[in-house]
Amino acid sequence: MLKQTTSSVLMIRPVAFTFNKETASSNAFQYHATNFTEKEIQLKALYEFENFAENLTAAGIEVVAVDDTLKPHTPDSISPNNWITMHHDGTVVLYPMQAANRRLERRKDIIDLLQKKYKFTVKEVIDLSHHEKKGKYLEGTGSIVFDHPNKIAYANISPRTSEIVLKELCQKLKYDYYIFHASDAKGVPIYHTNVMLSLGDKVAIVCLESLKEASQRNEMEKKLKASGREIINLNFQQIAFFAANILQLTNHKKEPVFAMSHQAFCGFSQEQAGVLSKYGKLVYAPMPAFERIGGGSARCMLAEVFLPKKK
Out of 154, 174, 207, 296, which could bridge 234 as a Cys pair, Cβ 3.0 to 4.6 Å? Predict the structure, then answer.
């Protein structure tokens, strides 16, 4: 059975983080902060990155931190989980991105670095980026929330998540997939699945009220319970706090760790935080600039490295 969590994550250190105009039309969580200069925004994001990475390292997580490059300009490079996933059998998948400037984030040198410096094994690279030419997108673990032990890919269909590409990916990985349609409180389609769903080993964090149809809400709840997970059901205000945009990891002592932003932590009720704490240590850091300007949170900063290590 495949493991749901890993102890290694890839993070990209920002060098020119700023508001991305190309992604704002489909991400209702982004906010154009005109009261700060681009230099100030970058400095804020860099501080948030370093603080979060240090907290994860202190919790026993292996952080593979790679510097972004000034050229080409990639304002959202802090979110590598959208362009790459790295799987248990040595497979690496490269994904089709909606925004043209996000496609520039895909870097072969990072895959080479993982192999040469960090001794991870890459056996195959599946490149799905050709779908961009036909306007079909699938933005990694933004679009997909994987249930690895049960080999199911959960995906909310949106402008950034194509069922056609998802189907091709799942055929290659030998996974089943489950699609649905989720919207925010204003009825706007939620741009990424990981804003309203997170799966740990024994817990599922989900916003059931974001699913339009009662039948779909019931079906989702049934599937999550059948997977053996306890459900923490969020409301719209909580997903606006990015309470679902969290990630369970496992540290070097084989202990479960939940990585999240400080805002996400504050978004949980005391009872919900108590349930989550049963299943792992809560590790969090403030990241207001990234959340407001980038429209993402802690989970978006982390690309899980499931690749086997060379002995």
Answer: 207
